[in-house]
Design goal:
With 506 residues, the protein is α/β, with parallel strands linked by helices. It folds into 2 domains: 239 residues, FAD/NAD(P)-binding domain, CATH 3.50.50.60; 153 residues, Cholesterol Oxidase, domain 2 (2-Layer Sandwich). It has 13 helices and 26 strands. The strands form 8 sheets. Strands 1, 2, 12, 13, 14, 15 and 26 form a 7-stranded mixed beta sheet that branches. Helix 1 runs parallel beside helix 13 and helix 4 crosses helix 13.
Length: 506
């Protein structure tokens, strides 16, 4: 195999320049004595050259040029759906809906049950503050000078129908919240977003600024797909790219995302031994990679808007975050997300509002496995949504709440009619059937290489991201979350990378 840089060994190679990898590239290269190479599968646009499709927060999905093209089986019906992931410097932070909600204390308490240490809400709060740049909220809880800009939408900024959604939710008994990244999340609020002047602020922009990219000890290598990690025994010594090039490194960090990092681990011999054996892969460490995978199931309750109230910009607007009747402890296990992230052509009036329900603390567990040893064959992703009875009941309850909000008198001035599931769906049996037929993903995949203590049978990495059974190899991205948090995980993924860099990689 030909080697990059004449077999020169760099200190750290980071695989993946997304929500975690861009953070690590910035923080680790801040030490001028440390040589860092960041390898990204997609293009590394200059800060001022990101195309409009990536800058526009109203564009979510349907961008094949910056997507890995993965698909997933959604449930036991065998139905296959796209599961988009960003393929560009900035990763999925460059293509998502730019929702900037922190995970809750209850989420971190659930992580602790898996034996992880250093990840209580009290311990990560300062990291959340350090990454954040906002004028919103209590300065004791919110950050003012970090690299990642977060702006709380106000009701005045919302479209008429989004404001009606907030009013209808209040009329249905939900508390009106000013700052969901503060002390209270149970209620309705406009979204906090990493959007400034209607430009999505991805990590490739704000962490890998032009100044950071000029550091002589940082190299960014784009449009390069990584096949596997190279080992000498059980010590990682570098990476092998799809075209067979070798890059040697003192430490390898996988930040290729929940799907990408899992695939690289398994192709490298780290994963379930029985699965690897089927593909002729020699086992380096027998670990349950891909066996604890989780995502949020998502159902779209869509309404057409009256012609005089069919404004659809800004697209991302407001959310109800609340408890189901079966919530356990302090968990907030339902989202009803109100947006205009829909093609206006679906509505005869040219305007639509989507009230989308998610079960945000699912019991169901999916799986991610290799289709073959060839990285170009993709992955076998099974979301396994609503496999557990409590998940099915809570999804039904969430859609019922969504429809009550949609039919509230506060919405009457803006709503023309219900598009999905439609006025003909009246009883629970029919509604459950439609939910199953139209179910989608919230695009929040996590936990294919989860952190855990010595007694956790699911653990792939320790509390600092070190892969068990090997040395000089870490995973730092959403794949190491012990379970999916109760909200969009992007800000928590950024926090996770910041926290490990601050506490374990100096």
């Amino acid at each position: 195999m030909p080697e990059k840089n004449d077999a020169q060994t760099v200190d750290v190679v980071i695989v993946g320049g997304g929500s975690a990898g861009a953070v690590l590239a910035n923080r680790l290269s801040a030490d001028p004595a440390r040589t860092v190479v960041l390898v990204e599968g997609g293009p590394a646009y200059a800060v001022d050259e990101y195309p409009a499709v990536l800058r526009d927060p109203a564009r979510v999905g349907d961008d094949a040029e910056h997507d890995w093209g993965l698909t997933a089986t959604i449930d036991d019906t065998g139905r296959v759906i796209p599961t988009p992931r960003g393929k560009v410097l900035g990763g999925s932070s460059a293509v998502n809906a730019a929702v900037a909600l922190r995970a809750r204390a209850d989420d971190f308490e659930k992580w602790a049950t898996h034996g992880v240490t250093g990840w209580s809400f009290e311990e990560v709060l300062e990291t959340y503050r350090a990454l954040e740049n906002t004028t919103d909220g209590d300065p004791r809880l919110r950050g003012r000078s970090g690299p990642f800009p977060i702006r709380q939408r106000t009701c005045a900024e919302l479209t008429p129908s989004l404001r009606a959604f907030v009013d209808a939710s209040v009329a249905q008994g939900f508390a009106r919240l000013d700052d969901p990244n503060g002390t209270q999340q149970n209620g309705v609020t406009p979204y906090p977003l990493n959007v400034v002047n209607e430009v999505r602020q991805n990590t490739g922009l704000v962490y890998l600024t032009a100044e950071v990219r000029r550091r002589p000890n940082l190299t960014i290598r784009d449009r390069t797909t990584v096949d596997s990690v190279l080992f000498d025994g059980t010590a990682a010594t570098g990476i092998v790219t799809l075209d067979g090039q070798v890059l040697r490194a003192g430490e390898v960090i996988l930040s290729a995302g929940t799907y990408g990092s899992a695939g690289i681990l398994m192709r490298s011999g780290i994963g379930p031994a029985t699965d690897l054996g089927r593909h002729g892969i020699e086992v380096v460490s027998d670990l349950p990679v891909g066996r604890r995978f989780q995502d949020h199931p998502f159902y779209y309750n869509i309404y057409t808007l009256k012609p005089d109230a069919n404004a659809m910009s800004p697209a991302a607007g407001a959310i109800v975050w609340t408890r189901s009747s079966e919530a356990i402890g302090d968990e907030l296990d339902l989202h009803i997300s109100a947006t205009h992230l829909a093609d206006p052509s679906i509505s005869p009036t040219g305007g639509a509002i989507v009230l989308a329900t998610a079960v945000t603390q699912p019991d169901s567990i999916g799986s991610v496995a290799l289709r073959s040893r060839d990285p170009q064959d993709g992955l076998a992703i099974d979301l396994n949504f609503l496999a557990e009875p409590r998940d099915r009941r809570r999804m039904l309850e969430g859609v019922q709440i969504s429809r009550r909000i949609g039919r509230d008198s506060a919405m009457a001035a803006v709503v023309d009619g219900e598009l999905t599931p439609g006025p003909g769906i009246r009883d629970d049996t029919a509604l459950e059937q439609v939910i199953r037929q139209q179910l989608d993903t919230y695009q929040h995949p996590t936990s294919t290489a989860p952190m855990g203590g010595d007694g956790d049978p699911w653990a792939v990495v320790d509390s600092a991201g070190n892969v068990r059974g090997v040395s000089r190899l870490r995973v730092v991205d959403a794949s190491i979350m012990p379970r999916v948090p109760s909200t969009a995980p992007n800000v928590t993924t950024i926090m996770l990378a910041e926290h490990i860099a601050r506490t374990n990689m100096r």
